[in-house]
């Protein structure tokens, strides 16, 4: 099931294959507290991406000898389910999943007050149910909500979006086709209130100026994503308040 | 081999910070200064290409091996590039024995992405029988001694090994491939240099030593082309950067890359040659 | 000295609360410069009389506090102590010296006769610091093994609502349903009653308080809730 490259990714009106303009995000849907067992959880849809995140902790560290005396051990696991992509993905952890687990962990860790939970473990498990470009950004969006939903102390939430390149045009929130056949992919995560970047990767070739523009483009989208994360977290409790 | 998490005693971190506050590093270097760099190529005869790089005490060796294989289904007319790295316990008490860990995999994938984005190796020139048989290019990177900044050293070693690589010529006769004795240089254009910037509190420093890395809040690595464009970025570590710090690090990386490009070209005797053709 | 939030407002981690001034800002907050921010997904409670604003998490694990009364579950029997699960990331220890003042010949079989795996106890936290696991005691009166009852677990942050102002909520439930409620500050409650229907109703009541803990007028609503179901 090989994908044939689309004739062009941007048409003469500046519209992308799904009709979006370069600075438009895909539809975003977030729901918090969707799993019974996990201490915190979130379900996110970003375009055709469907992602679920579960946060556990703080809880005992297993194995015990890995516990740290002065802070929590923070672990993160990103897994793509075999049926999430066109060609079935083997359940064996791929090198990509290993790297993404690391960068997602490093995107979320700066936001957590790990020092408040010595000798414990905090774990975030992310399953990609359906993938269409931008799974790591959707994962971070979900992971941050799951951690907050679990009641874990955090400095800020973390929101993320990817900026791609089609020719010389920077495009926001690239989908699967744009990722595969476009000219660059730059995922960016930030703590929205702190204004700090916690994830930054890039492939493709960029002028120094384009790096700056991409960050600015991402920052605007990140504020919108943040608003949606806040809404998702508060809505469960505010709905009950309204029915008083 | 996964890197064990060890923490620098806080006293040491304070000493490092006190020094940075005075505008200096513990070894006397300026913030944007590299340690002594030694580049050697062609050190492993059995490899098609090889190199060894020293940055201070950090030592990384890289080898290139070629073998005939099948192309990837979605790129039938391109050779295959596979980058692998292993942080072996030989190099540091921090590295554990075992299957590749997240640091090994991250290192390999970051180097691979930069080379791929810049098209350092023209993979289309590695086709033997179009659509069926191509050269598979294995770039294997092995740090031998870890005193910080393995990524930059690994990048230099990989680049030099590629520049050192000779590809055997082949003839094809009714589907049968004959590998000849005669060799030609691997088509390497669009060189890439990796520069890592470490952040300790509000200070940005280049070429961190192991202690500086352990003291750092986070690191960011840029893949830089000769034209001064960025072809790879990887932030790592559990800290964060302000957008202005990212841009400052970008500039530090682009500046530092210039002397590194000089050193590479001098080692392979390209110093006097005009810049190679640059592809977008 | 502005305060950006209202009483009963829901806040998220990183949300600005305000600057301390006439009103003190406490609870799960952190400060950068003069501004305070929430650390958690929580609710703001402003006590105008005491001039205190507090941010309380809506959910979270139980963190042991010296002096707290908790309901623990025995998970392991040792030679001189028991390991006790207190619904916290930290497992507690109950030494045999904190069970009885009588001298005890140390033997594992003796210990499991006193308290065995699965037993519930009402205990007090004698000591806890971040370097060692919490230590429990059941030597005081009213503490000890809980022989029977139904265990319910809720986020520890909601226990104050179960108890109510000056115990008003818990007294009301006990009276209306004729059940005994043993409450641990670690989010555990044991309901003891003869009538299984009333015990079940007590569980439902606790669950309702749990989901509406952050609202006002709760005591009246719970009263109505119980009345309606008792009528059927």
TrEMBL record, chain C:
Signal sequence range:
none
Chain ranges passing through the membrane: none
Q: Which InterPro entries does the annotation name?
A: Exosome_RNA_bind1/RRP40/RRP4, KH_dom, KH_dom_type_1, KH_dom_type_1_sf, NA-bd_OB-fold, Rrp4, RRP4_N, S1_domain
Q: Name one GO biological process term.
A: poly(A)-dependent snoRNA 3'-end processing
Tell me where in or outside the cell this protein is found: Cytoplasm
Keywords assigned: Cytoplasm, Exosome, RNA-binding
- Main localization of the protein? cytoplasm
Provide the Gene Ontology terms for cellular component: cytoplasm; exosome (RNase complex)
- Please give one Pfam family short name: KH_1
> Where does the S1 motif domain lie?
67-139
One of the record's GO molecular function terms: poly(A) binding
For the keyword Membrane, the answer is: no
Entry similarity comment = Belongs to the RRP4 family.
Protein function = Non-catalytic component of the exosome, which is a complex involved in RNA degradation. Increases the RNA binding and the efficiency of RNA degradation. Confers strong poly(A) specificity to the exosome.
Task: Write down the NCBIfam families for this protein, in alphabetical order.
Answer: PRK04163.1-1 (NF003181)
Q: What PANTHER family does this protein's entry cite?
A: EXOSOME COMPLEX COMPONENT RRP4, PNAS-3 RELATED
Q: What quaternary arrangement does the UniProt entry report?
A: Component of the archaeal exosome complex. Forms a trimer of Rrp4 and/or Csl4 subunits. The trimer associates with an hexameric ring-like arrangement composed of 3 Rrp41-Rrp42 heterodimers.
HAMAP family assigned: Exosome_Rrp4
Q: What is this protein called?
A: Exosome complex component Rrp4
